[in-house]
Amino acid sequence: MGLKVCDEAVRQLSLLNTPVSVVAVVGRYRSGKSFLLNKLAGVVLKDSTDGGFQLGSTVQSQTKGIWVWPVSHPNDPHRTVILIDTEGLGDIEKGNKDHDCWIFVLSILLSSILIFNTQSTISHEGFEQLHFVSNMTDLVKTKVHSDPDEAGEDFSEFFPHLVVCVRDFSLRLEVNGKPLTADEFLEHCLTKRKPGKSRESREYNGLRENLESFFKKRKCFVLSPPELGDRTQELDQLADDELNEKFVEQLKALRDYVFTSARPKVVDGIALNGKAWVTLALEYTEALMSNAIPCIESSLTRMTKAVNEEAKKESINVYDTGMKSKLQRLPVSMEKVLECHERYMKEALTEFAKRCVLDKEKHYAREVNLFLERQLQEWTRKNESESELFCRDLLRVERRSRKEFLKAGGHKEFTAMINKIQKTYEATSNKGPKACEVMARFMEEVNLEEQEILKVDKTLTEMERKCRIQEADRRMAEEEKKAMQEKVNRLQASFDALTKQYEETVQILIEKLYEIGQETETHGMAFEMLQSDISNLQHRHPRNTENVPPPRTCNIM
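The chain above was modelled as a monomer; its predicted structure follows.
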């Protein structure tokens, strides 16, 4: 029987938008892994409502497959710890010889900390339970294209922190009469070599060399027997004050260490949230079940694409929904469009940051920014179009044909009509950003008609005609200047809005990096790319117009 990721687990874990730290426990079956995890989580199974991993009291294995339990990080409310309880190694009831191998590989690939649970001491037999490590180069690939001679050399970059937990330890930590710490004892066991070139010696030495090479971060804890008296079968229901005091003290040291050291699960520089983590779990499981070798690089690429495409889709939906709800009726002022854009741009970027995983090049963050930039341009275009239609219709309402004024005294009537139209136009609100530009074009048409009317109006002297023409030219020039300044202001406002958008993106991504505990220096190149995008806006959005003073200077970054 193979492995399959439970649909309900996928649904629940996908809701975790915060960075996840992952602690997995592996070891021989019936060795107390579930009990240890419950103790790490501070759970006593007095009844079924307390949660936690279920324990058994017979020789039969209780845990089947891989069970996960998300708990809040005790020291960081912004982070979730996923505890992984695994089916015990070496269970004789397993029908598939590859089952232990699958469990072990998934535990390594998916965890931030891997706890190896062993009994009584660190022995050769105990290490033998980790014999899969010797074959890891045949079980896992880090890159799609790699030199076979270099296989395994970069495993330490992807493998978790190894914690060896020796249970029911009652011996003295001493070698050749010299007292040792638990960590020193672990290193002594790992560096011990068997002489000779026999197959047994090669396997013995090779396993220890691989453990040293693949797991660069190592720690060891020894735990005394937990129970006082003959209450072994009731361990899951015993509170700390009912357990061996030394065991409780040692367990607290282990718990403190695990939660202090359990940083977010990071794969190739990408910190994972619940959605990203469970997507990787699906990728790895599918590869194993199809008899393929899981490849970290290709799985990570597919995971990043899937998670970030969904994050992008949700952030776009936030922006679209907000803008459509607030800008149902156009035209509105340019300020109103930019105000709405700034509000829903921030909400969209926050939604994206909450759901995304940070790919090294920030490709998807740039895509979201480009979408928001184009949407601002599209809303601006639609608003300007509606503004132009509205303003043109408004100017037509009381306008009469010029032919009606081609008569004696016609200029006076024409001037009265134009003054009335202008007064009504100025008194009308919400004309939108094209108000001055449409009025400027209107006055240009009026100027041509007025000159024709003046020519046939015999009630005016030549001097009066010249004065009227000069006055009309002055009014037209004023309207053109207003229109030009209005256009420059719109361009400047758009430029400022887009600059602020990119700055907001950089800030939100930096905050996300600090939240997940990553150094921003590792993403410096990507942020430079985003800042370069800001500078490139200058080339796409002109900031000066002929015969109009340049607008105010805009500081970038």
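The two ends are 57 Å apart (CA to CA).
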